[in-house]
Amino acid sequence: MTTPDTHTPPRLPWDSADPYPFYETLRRNADIVWDDTAQAWLILGYHAARTVLTDKSWTSDPRANRAINADTVLNSAVIDANMLFADGPTHHRLRSAVRDVFSRSFIDGLHTGVDAICHDVISAIPAGKPFDFMSQIALPLPIAVIGAWMELDAEQCTSLREHSPAIIRLLGGLTDEDDIASGIAASAALIADLLPAAADRRAHPGDDLLSFLAADPTLSLDEVVITALLVAVAGHETTANLLGAGLIRLLTPSPDGNRPADYIDASDPAVCTELLRLDAPVQATARTATADQTIAGVDIACGEAVLVCIAAANRDPAIYAEPNQFHPGRPGPAPLSFGHGAHYCLGAPLARLETSTALHHILARKPELVGTATWRDTAAIRGPLRAPAVLTQ
Hints:
Layout: H1 20-27, E1 32-35, E2 40-43, H2 46-54, E3 58-59, H3 70-73, H4 77-80, H5 88-99, H6 104-108, H7 111-123, E4 131-132, H8 133-138, H9 140-150, H10 154-172, H11 177-203, H12 209-214, H13 221-251, H14 269-278, E5 284-289, E6 293-295, E7 298-300, E8 305-309, H15 310-313, H16 348-364, E9 367-369, E10 374-375, E11 384-386, E12 388-391
Parallel strand pairs: 2-8
Antiparallel strand pairs: 1-2, 3-5, 4-12, 5-8, 6-7, 9-12, 10-11
């Protein structure tokens, strides 16, 4: 058993721009290692990661983590009504409310609308003029998609974009108390913005996602809004960061000197899968043991936290040959980028659709990188802050 430091808030220990050398160094010792900075066990191996994500004896509720001062930062409806942090019947009820609208067949029906939004956003960028891919394409595009799906007005979309970074820190790791407090405050601001809209959609439903949620009698209005925000923020951030990191990878020459962008078909699902494996937007997700556990020969006590290092598991050399290389269609199990088990990401089909469609339109314009990308400082969520590029056509 380990003893958490109650005076120093836990934080994620890796470099947000390039965490992979850190993972590889740790993996030389074991697939599971204790980290004093995170005050958690880091799960690095694929099989151990998948076991924790699947096993019901681990909880997603951060209040079970004894390293976090739950009394001061976690007594919030944002936690209580959030399916990411719920388990058992509560998680099933909240997830069931949106399961149908995230079925593959339903998402396939959104293709025409997503394609039109991608065309409009990307065609607005003039050829030959350097621009920042993140601020002008990667970030506004998924906001436009989710805004149209929920029928949000321009002010609500702006508020969503402004508050998303703080909320995604809350959703991403739940180890830093300052980030938790900031995320709860940002969530409260967005909830206040959307509660009147949710109440109106419950009384006067339309065909949008917010109306669909509001029509569910099992959900309170708070739960309607928090679920809608989870869908919006997680979907927006995941897609934006995957697009940014994915474009950089596709435009960067591989060891043989060829750029993947010059030979891949962006519409091939295997391309999106391999980008997700190599550049998972969500680097890690937290769980807490609800009973004493033994994973891969390591004893973990009840109340101890683990960080399932998804990005490390996706590059486990015991699972994937040449794990750091881009090989679409490679053999092996699916990467854990969207999680696994009961908390598998409901928005995965939409994120795949947006990413593949956007990359198809972007690569048709023959993009090139024209400077050095800078990366966000969010350790749990990895993506570029800026990505200078130019469209040559």
